[in-house]
Amino acid sequence: MNQRDIPEKTKQIQLMAQIYSKAARVIVWLGEAEDSGDQALEQLRQLCIR
Length: 50
What we know:
- The chain contains two helices and no strands.
- Helices cover 58% and strands 0% of the residues.
- By secondary structure, the chain is mainly alpha-helical.
- The chain has helices spanning 6-22, 37-48.
- The protein starts with 5 loop residues before the first helix and ends with a helix.
- It has one domain (6-48).
- Pfam families: HET.
- It comes from Podospora pseudocomata.
- This is Heterokaryon incompatibility domain-containing protein.
- Residues 2-47 form the Heterokaryon incompatibility domain.
């Protein structure tokens, strides 16, 4: 979620309860975006589906 994009943030926040209530597992990246952040999250996702 882009914290600086207020319309996007508002839309996403409204969906959070529904999304998280249906999730079997949640992975959250807390902190600043890094050059390889997307790759790191994809690797975590791959580990979780095994």
